[in-house]
Design a protein that fits this description.
Layout (H helix, E strand, L loop, with lengths): L4 E5 L3 E5 L24 H12 L2 E6 L8 H10 L12 E7 L7 H13 L3 E2 L4 E3 L14 H15 L1
Parallel strand pairs: 3-4, 4-5, 4-6
Antiparallel strand pairs: 1-2
């Protein structure tokens, strides 16, 4: 979603749902080394500020060709700059996969679970995979308890 949406879970946790995948420009550090440090685009400045201010981050992803979607990799590339001074350092991060297929995003989630600690963030929670996600969402947009319950547990763990 292009607009910030807030939701409350048990009046304890506030979520801000963001879809930077569609907002951030394509990252290419080779074109202008200063673009990612000294003069990033305004949307990148806002994104990095928001990530820096967040207590925790939850990343939900599908799986494309047994890997991350390119847009999510782009988000990670912008977030992980400038090197050793970026907005992911010290963040608590949870990840989950959801797909209409049988795998539930397993390869994408495994990749994220491997890279999150390498970026200086703390990986929180178990591997969460939601295969056949399209059958677990009602036409009104409500999630089945088999999805909502593990996500609520992850959110509570991240909030600590």
């Amino acid at each position: 979603m292009n607009e910030t949406q807030k939701a409350s879970a048990g009046n304890k946790i506030e979520f801000v749902l963001r879809d930077y995948v569609r907002e951030l420009p394509h990252y290419d550090g080779d074109l202008d080394i200063n673009t990612d440090t000294e003069t990033p685009p305004a949307v990148v400045v806002d994104f990095r500020r928001e990530m820096s201010e967040a207590h925790a981050i939850i990343i939900g992803t599908p799986e494309y060709n047994y890997s991350l979607p390119g847009g999510l990799k782009n988000v990670i590339d912008w977030a992980s700059r400038p090197f050793a001074k970026h907005c992911l350092i010290g963040r608590r991060v949870g990840v989950f996969g959801c797909t209409p297929g049988e795998r539930g995003g397993k390869a994408a989630v495994e990749y994220l679970r491997n890279i999150v600690p390498l970026l200086g963030a703390t990986l929180i929670g178990p591997e969460l995979l939601f295969p056949k996600i399209n059958s677990l969402i009602t036409p009104d947009g409500l999630l089945d308890a088999s999805v909502l319950s593990p996500l609520a547990e992850l959110a509570n763990e991240l909030a600590q």
